[in-house]
Amino acid sequence: MKTVIIVALLIMLVVGGYVAYTFWNQKKSEGVSGDNCGADCTELYAAESLIKLTAQGSLLGWEGACAGTKDCTLSMNPNLSVIARFAPRQKTSKESFIDNFNREDSSTLGKGWQEISGDFFVYGNALQNSALSGNHIAITPLDAPNQELEASFASMGNREDPAYGFILRYQDTENYYLLYRQVGSSPELRISKVIQGKETVIYSELVQNPSMDIYYVMKAGVTDSTITFTTLGRQISVKDSTFPNGVSGVFIRVGQSVKQHSIDDFSARQI
Ligand SMILES: [Ca+2]
Ligand SMILES: [Ca+2]
Questions:
Q1: How far is the CA of 261 from the centre of ligand 1 (A)?
Q2: pLDDT tens by residue, 78-132
Q3: For 174, phi and psi rounded to 5 degrees?
Q4: CATH code linked to domain 96-270
Q5: Among all ligands shown, which has an atom nearest to the Cα of 121?
Q6: Residue 156 in contact with residue 259, Cβ under 8 Å?
Q7: What spacing in Å lies between the alpha carbon of 122 and ligand 1's midpoint?
Q8: CA–CA separation, 147 vs 247, rounded Å?
Q9: How far apart are alpha carbons 38 and 42 in whole angstroms?
Q10: Got the DSSP string for 229-260?
Q11: Tens of pLDDT along 166-225?
Q12: CA–CA separation, 63 vs 57, rounded Å?
């Protein structure tokens, strides 16, 4: 059985370079990815194999043994050469992590969430804390130093002084920022930092308590050393450079007579 080689040069106009693809495999068909051809960009095919080339991305057109802009099927008989020309790629958008929790009830959160304190679960297409007193914290996989967070929160009661909000620049289970609405006997918006497990409030403002079981939106942001917290038409801000980076997430703190509060429509965006 003779072996033939097909070479596809994938010209990436956006970067002004090209990626050389050589196929020499027994696989019956192989997709051609615009910028991903594995470690060596080579594949070996048996003679007479039918090879289907599929361009992923905005293909301007094939040249050489293929023509047009659709998938190209080649019979591996003679040596063949193919060039795929692509339109410039769109500039990569900033990363984001979005979750509306619209999925089956579950004790694990999925989607890359990591529960690092207490216990959350997905219930009724939202996030809820479990019946444990103390801090409930879950972090996202979005690792960007500057982030903007948004989520809806619903209180199931203001007794026992619960708190709802965000964690920013999580370092480990004892070091991070918290931005939250403290409700109950001393209702406040707070920005605090937790160092070696000890929380210090670095800025706070008085607010009213929320109504029960009504969602309201809160936003948090951190850009370099500026931390902002926005809700109820108010924005508080503070400068602090203790933690320069780290992932972010959600935070609920509950007291002894535990209520299960809700969080929904979470988003985190790199800024
Ligand atoms: Ca939802
Ligand atoms: Ca859980």
A1: 14
A2: 667 777 777 765 555 679 999 999 999 999 999 999 999 999 999 999 999 998 8
A3: -120, 0
A4: 2.60.120.560
A5: 2
A6: yes
A7: 9
A8: 9
A9: 8
A10: EEETTEEEEEE--S----EEEEEEEE-SS---
A11: 999 999 999 999 999 999 889 999 999 999 999 999 999 999 998 888 999 999 999 999
A12: 16
| pTM assigned to the model | 0.67
Q: Tokens 């070479």 sit at which residue?
A: 7
Smallest-distance ligand from the CA of 119? 2
Q: Where are the domains of the chain?
A: 3-86, 96-270
Taking the C-alpha atoms of residue 81 and residue 66, their distance in angstroms, rounded to an integer, is 9
Give the CA radius of gyration of the chain: 27
In this structure, what DSSP letter does residue 170 have? E
CB atoms within 10 A of CB 198: 9
The 3-state DSSP class for residue 157 equals: coil
Paired tokens of 14? 């956006």
Q: Rounded distance, CA 2 to CA 80, Å? A: 14
